[in-house]
Amino acid sequence: AMSQSDDAAGELARRARIFASAQERYYERPPQIERGWRHHLVDTTGRAYVDMVNNVTGLGHGHPRVADAVNRQIRILNTNSRFLYRELAEYSERLLALVPERPSDAPGDRLDTVLLVNSGSEAVDLALRLAQAATGRKTIVSLREAYHGWTMASDAVTTSAYDNPDALATRPDWVHVADVPNRFRGTYRGEETGARYAADLGADLDRLAAEGRPVAGFICESVLGNAGGVMLPEGYLAEAYARVRGAGGLCIADEVQVGFGRMGSSFWGFEQSAVSPDIITIAKPMGNGYPIGGVITSKRVADALAAQGQFFSSAGGNPLSCRVGIAVLDAMAEEGLQENARVVGARLAEGFRALAERHRLIGPVHGEGLYLGVELVRDRESMEPAAAEAAAICERLRELGVIVQTTSERSNVLKIKPPLCLTARSADLVVAAVDRVLTEGW
Ligand code: PMP
C-alpha cells in the first residue's frame, strides 16, 4: 500500500488542532490535494486520481471559462441586488428557460420567479419559509433518510441517521417525517410500491390535518440522492404531489444534488417522475465551485414573503455570481455535458451491473446518468449493509487512483457523482478498479 506523504501527515495534524470534531474528512489517511483538472485530482506528490466525488464542479475542475468570468467581472463590478445591473435578470431568465412548461392540468402558477442565495442550505431554508408564508401554515413533511442542509431550518428537515443518530427523536414539532419510499429495502417492495408509499403519506397528511397542523409544504429529493441515488418508485411522486396539493400544501423539489443535468436523460430529477413542483431548490453545480444557490417558484408563492417584510441576501445574485452562473450554463451547453452524463453514466451503470454477476457483494445499482449508487450488501435477500467493506474498498480504490466515497445512512453505497465531463475511458478504469478490489478481497 502506498504510504501517506509527509505533506499530508503534517496537514492532518494541523487540522486536528484547529477544527471542530463535528467536521468530518474523507479517508483514514487522506492524500493532500493540490490541483484539479477536469475529472481528475492531483496530490502534492504528483499522483493523479479519477474524481468520482465532486458533483459541485459539474463542468470539471479548473474550468477556464469560469476562471475568466470571475476574473473579468470582479474587476468590473460586484455589488448587491438592490442596485440595478443587467446580470441578475440575465441569469434568472437563463435559469427559468431551463424549467419545463407545466402541464396544462397542473394546479398552480407558472414557475417564473427566481430568488438567488449562496448555498443549498440557504435555498432549502428559503423554500421552507416560502411554503409556510404562502400557505399561512407551519407543518413541513420530509422523508426519512434525507439530508437537506445545515442551517436551523434545513437541518430540521434533515432526518438521516448518518448526520444525526437522534434525528428522528429530535425534530421540531413543525416537522413531520414520512416513510422513505425505498423499494429496495423499505416497508414495501415489489408491485404497487409507489402507490402504497403514497397512500401512507396521504394517511399522514389526513392525520396532520385532524390534529390541527395541516401541511404547508412537502420536501424531498426528486431522486433519493443522500440515500444512495435511489430512484423513486413508479408513480410515487405524482401521487404524493397530488395528495399534498389536495391537502392544501406546496411541493418542494430539492434538486441541489440530482438536478442540473446530472440525470443525463433529463435536466431535472423531477422530470424522471414526470411531475412539476411548486418550489425548486438548486445550488451545488450552479457555480462550478463558486457559491451560488437559488429557489425557483411562482410569483404568487414568492410574493407571499412580502408579508414578512423584505428579503435580501448580501451576496445572493450579485453580478459576479450571476456571471459565473451564466458561464457555467454556456459551458454545459457547448460541451454537451448533460448528454455526456447520459452516455457515460449508462456505460458506468452497465459496467457495475456486469460486475454484480461476478461479485456477490454488489447489490442493486441505483441512479441515472452520472448520479449512481452501487449498494454493497452481505446478503442480497436480507440486504445486510456491507459498511465496513465499503469503507475498506474506498481506501483501496484511493490507492489504485480512484476517489470514491460512501453514502446512505448505512454508509454502504458507493456514491458515483463525478464531474459531468467524465470520459468513457475513465469510467472503464473505475469499473476495472472496483473489479480488481473486489477480486482481491471479497
Ligand atoms: N440539499 C441536498 C439534497 C444536499 O445534498 C445538500 C448538500 N449535501 C444541501 C441541500 C445543502 O447544500 P449546501 O451544502 O450547499 O448548503
From TrEMBL:
<comment type="similarity">
    <text>Belongs to the class-III pyridoxal-phosphate-dependent aminotransferase family.</text>
</comment>
<protein>
    <submittedName>
        <fullName>5-aminovalerate aminotransferase DavT</fullName>
    </submittedName>
</protein>
